[in-house]
């Protein structure tokens, strides 16, 4: 009977085909949703300090301690620098899925410690947020790599952009939580703000338990049959499965023939990898040096300083910015695979630069310029950032590194991104205390223009290409 079945496989009925197609779509939705869910944690922690910081500033008497404010805010980025690099390296050895699970556990620990920090415990809170940062940095490195390896080439931009939707949704969630929890009297308000991050971390852990490992990771470790099974659950066209698997195997053999150990950073210096490594690391660093997190972390303090608004009313502005971020990220999903990456990054960088430089110029011409006018320009910046540099940075990072160094490459790019975020978070209060916000914004505007030049010179176009084609095209140069 078994031999007969093997010789004459039964033809699936339309009902069976329909059931199989429905199951595959369910698998895809689940995998892509929870594959990107780490972005919720990433985004929540980026945004939560926006509401907690003004409370801590008052309760811990930090009004004249801009460095302490910057250190509390940026300490999570300090942990993320190590977390991104370490998680990326370990992901090449142990798998993307396993590292996402571990990072969710670390996130639970870091969030809980942050919530129980003692009064005036700057050192304790900084240490807790460094632990939290390891998990945030790991998620920022692992999610783009996982999604890019799971997604087919024709929708990879949209699915990688799903990570950005999760990030900004987490930010908006934190802004809303901050606004309502600010009404609670006493220290319970900021403790709940920071401790609430435990909930999405638990959801991520439970969801990741059911995620499959990346087929590219499996194939690179000799688990070809398991890789085929994973592809069968996520590819609608069965005839494409073998073609894709063969292409992955060819790339794996090519890497092994060249004797390149998986994930070794020394491979970054090899001539065929150097341009891609420079492009990936440069885009990741420039995204942060453009100053977005100065808005996301310090907007209430900026509004208070420029307009004299109360702490609670100033928390309305982050919710507006969060809504803009979510809408922009959803718009990106519509255009991600229809417009070239370089074109979007160039357009976004130019308008972002003008949004930062215009308030500085107007302030020189009209010194009495109102603070709300400045926030409007910052909102324009956020709108362009939300569907250009914010999502496309992680799309480029997730797809530009060759297979042999993809985990380590995305990890190191994540670390470069967090180095920029750390420096912006740490130095913005110090810079704003030493010069006007307008001058600081003008500096960020200049960095945006540098980013445009970098894109035009160093970053190749990758839209519509498979990961293996991107790698082959660079080796041919």
UniProtKB/TrEMBL annotation:
PROSITE patterns: MFS, SUGAR_TRANSPORT_1. It is found in: Membrane. InterPro entries: MFS_dom, MFS_sugar_transport-like, MFS_trans_sf, Myo-inositol_Transporter, Sugar/inositol_transpt, Sugar_transporter_CS. It holds the Pfam family Sugar_tr. Keywords: Membrane, Transmembrane, Transmembrane helix, Transport. It comes from the Bacteria. PANTHER family: PROTON MYO-INOSITOL COTRANSPORTER. Belongs to the major facilitator superfamily. Sugar transporter (TC 2.A.1.1) family. This is MFS transporter, SP family.
């Amino acid at each position: 009977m078994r031999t007969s079945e093997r010789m004459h496989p039964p033809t699936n009925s339309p009902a069976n085909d329909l059931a199989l197609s429905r199951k595959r779509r369910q698998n895809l939705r689940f995998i892509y949703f929870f594959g990107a869910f780490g972005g919720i944690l990433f985004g929540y922690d980026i945004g939560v300090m926006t509401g907690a910081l003004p409370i801590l500033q008052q309760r811990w008497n930090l009004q004249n301690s801009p460095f302490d404010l910057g250190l509390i805010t940026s300490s999570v980025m300090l942990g993320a620098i190590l977390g991104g690099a370490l998680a990326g390296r370990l992901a090449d050895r142990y798998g993307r899925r396993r590292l996402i699970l571990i990072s969710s556990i670390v996130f639970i620990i870091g969030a809980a410690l942050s919530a129980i920090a003692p009064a005036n415990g700057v050192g304790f809170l900084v240490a807790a947020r460094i632990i939290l940062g390891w998990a945030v940095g790991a998620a920022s490195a692992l999610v783009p790599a996982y999604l890019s390896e799971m997604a087919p080439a024709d929708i990879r931009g949209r699915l990688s952009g799903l990570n950005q939707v999760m990030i900004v949704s987490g930010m908006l969630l934190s802004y809303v939580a901050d606004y309502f929890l600010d009404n609670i009297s006493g220290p319970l308000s900021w403790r709940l703000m920071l401790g609430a991050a435990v909930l999405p971390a638990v959801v991520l852990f439970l969801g990741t338990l059911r995620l499959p490992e990346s087929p590219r990771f499996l194939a690179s470790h000799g688990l070809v049959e398991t890789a085929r099974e994973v592809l069968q659950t996520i590819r609608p066209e069965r005839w494409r499965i073998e073609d894709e698997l063969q292409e992955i195997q060819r790339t794996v053999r090519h890497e092994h023939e060249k004797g390149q150990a998986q994930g070794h950073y020394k491979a970054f210096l090899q001539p065929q990898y150097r341009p891609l490594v420079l492009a990936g690391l440069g885009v990741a660093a420039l995204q942060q040096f453009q100053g977005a997190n100065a808005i996301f972390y310090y907007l209430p303090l900026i509004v208070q300083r420029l307009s004299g608004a109360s702490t609670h009313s100033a928390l309305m502005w982050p919710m507006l910015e969060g809504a803009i971020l979510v809408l922009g990220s959803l718009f990106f999903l519509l255009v991600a695979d229809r417009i070239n990456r370089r074109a979007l990054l160039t357009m976004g960088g130019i308008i972002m630069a003008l949004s930062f430089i215009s308030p500085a110029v107007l302030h020189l011409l009209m010194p009495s310029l109102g603070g709300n006018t400045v926030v409007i320009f910052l909102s324009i910046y956020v709108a362009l950032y939300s569907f250009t540099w914010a999502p496309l940075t992680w799309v480029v990072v997730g797809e530009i590194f060759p297979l042999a160094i993809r985990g380590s490459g995305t990890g190191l790019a994540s670390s470069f991104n967090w180095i920029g975020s750390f420096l912006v978070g740490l130095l913005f209060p110090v810079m704003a205390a030493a010069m006007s916000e307008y001058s600081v914004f003008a500096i960020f505007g200049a960095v945006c223009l540098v980013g445009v030049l970098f894109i035009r010179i160093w970053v190749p176009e990758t839209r519509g290409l498979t990961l293996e084609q991107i790698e082959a095209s660079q080796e041919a140069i």
